[in-house]
Amino acid sequence: MMRIFDVKTAQSTILRRMAWDELPIPDSLLDRTEQIFGERIQPEMAVRRILADVRERGDAALIEWSQRIDGVAPPMLLVDRRTMEAAYEQVDGAVVDALRLAARRVAAFHMRQPRSSWIHNDDEGTVGQLVRPIERVGIYIPGGTAPLPSSLIMTAVPARVAGVGQLVVISPPQRATGLPHPAILVAADIAGVDAVYVAGGAQAIGALAYGTQTVGKVDKIFGPGSLFTTLAKRQVFGFVGIDGLPGPTETLVIADESANPELAAADLLAQAEHDILASAILLTPSRALAEKVQAAVMHQLEDLGRSQVIAESLARGSGIVVTASIAQAFELANAYAPEHLCLLVQDPWSHLSDVRHAGGVFLGERSFEVLGDYVAGPSHVMPTGGTARFASPINLMDFVKIVSVIGLNEQALQAIGPAAATLARAEGLTAHAAAVAYRLGDEK
Length: 444
Description:
alpha/beta, Rossmann fold, 3 domains
């Protein structure tokens, strides 16, 4: 059942943000660590041990942890070209065509994003910036019950457009083959990645961060994953860059009385389908619409393949909130800062200026989130957990760095040097001040 909440109750339950690492650790997860490590340890300690082992033993540790955690030792750590080509035979042709369409549209969108170097010259010399792509990027792609080749496209293609020098993917082995899911191999090939490695979880993140005999060390790591993957990314941050610490996916829908309840229900169910931690929330001032959507959700749920996952997601962190007005709905939405914000209202464009915090805004019933998940063009990798207050979807700037250019002359030195010396002395940095003084001819 998808519950209907009043605003006050919703703010203390489904709209209340908690840091992902403050959530209680399920007993089942602790049971799993005990099974693997021989003692009941917290996930953070488990990850620390795995990372240390991969850093020390390289390939041997990757293979051993794959056997212990995934139940299979991969026949190869680097997927060879023959296996990549054979994957096409295992993936439906329509899926291959859809992945190619998605790659074209994602590339076209990101080619429009500005990423220019610039140089400014005047009487005092030159200042500017150089935009340089990151040299080595690694992308982690989960391979569990719902492999995500679309996430590979949505990350790898912008990286390629940005000009990343070496782009690699790492993904867990399937128990049946010891290799990544064939759809992931096909997506990697379409996206033009340079190598695909076989490893999952914390050990995969360790391999990308530290390098092994087979896996090359990267400069920045991208990609979603389990709690163990996220903890591993946090622990290696600083040694390498990371895209962020992604949490469970989320959608917030704002709808008025004009909305089609069947479409609103379909959008909520599509979000809840991801996993049991996903959040699907509807805000509406119409009690009548709320009840119609509630009924439509229950009716549509009966025909869906992942109904058990959806039911758990709807019961845990999802729901319908009846607001006093559309204006209050936007206030609540901005406070929540959702990954996806869907506007099923009569004139969605008139409300675009009301949006302050969201990973992506979907305007109207024909611009629904599922299109954004796959083929609209912008990357579907968007900030979760309220981080849309300060973070952005994957874009070209995630794959480049800026190098400042400073080429000043004597006129600039005379004009601004004394101020630099003054500030240096104010900070107690006399060597800094002296470096200016020598150039100004004032060694005292």
